[in-house]
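To whoever is on call:

I kicked off a structure prediction for a single chain this morning and the downstream step that reads the tokens threw a length-mismatch warning. I double-checked the sequence; it's 309 residues and nothing unusual in it as far as I can see. Pasting both halves so you can look.
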Amino acid sequence: MLHNAGVSRRGWALFLLLGVVWGLPYLLIRIAVREVSPELLVFIRTAGGALLLAPFALRRGELGTVWRRIGPLALYTVVEVGVPWFLLFGAERHLSSSLAGLLVAGVPVAGAVLAVATGTDRLDRGRITGLVLGLAGVGALVGFDVRGSSLPAALSLVVVMVGYALGPWLLARYLSDLPGIAVMASSLLLCAVAYAPAAALTLPTRSLSASVVASVVILTVVCTALAFVAFFALIAEVGPMRTTVITYVNPAVAVVLGVAVLGEHFGPATAAGFALILAGSYLATRRTAGDEGDPGAPAPLPEPTVAEP
């Protein structure tokens, strides 16, 4: 964790900023999808984010290098942004924002499964325990908090979890030597172009309410463009491994906002599921001294990144 880890005040400020900024989208999405289709919301968020981030990359002359790897960039865009954001936005039409945030909190567990499956990590007793706890937590949330027509929406968030785990793996494997902001600006632009036709077909037929407009603007400007700038600044300040602690903060922020602002339910079963997911994520992804000292251990992936909601 960050405690007593020699983190500067600037590092703490960036960490707290991101903890809030990436816990906020679940609430904003829940409000926005009342009047905006998932397709249009994906387009607005990606197009707006690309327009705001591209000047940073253009000023440094970095975009050309990124576009030379259009294949890996396109694949990363599909699994990290295009599919997960569409499914997440659609799911929040049927699920509470707090429950969506808690289910997505299982991303580190999915990442641990991916690392084992690709031979970049191996199972030990602690990681097996973590995987079991994490899956039990997801099961508890789905079993106790999801009913009827909401079940497909909850199950679609499992796909979101897999995408958010696979995206950083692809980024680390094929794009890690490229400038981060240029990669994200290019990825958001690709996604915006892909969603433009569907967005055009689902334009609202009436004026949007002020709360929806504000949610879309904040989601695009603050939770996308500003968040990515702060994210890469935090990586530079504290390193990518410490940055992953945000994964454990975001869902807590999502729950607090959902309960406080929208009056969403948070009962004992939800709390138990949340605790199991966080404990499982920690155990499934933590590094041990043996990992670093065992010459026969599989080579680990490059330091992980954090999936944004």
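Update from on-call: the warning came from a stale cache, not from the record. Cleared it. Sanity check on the structure: Residues 210-238 form the longest helix (29 residues).
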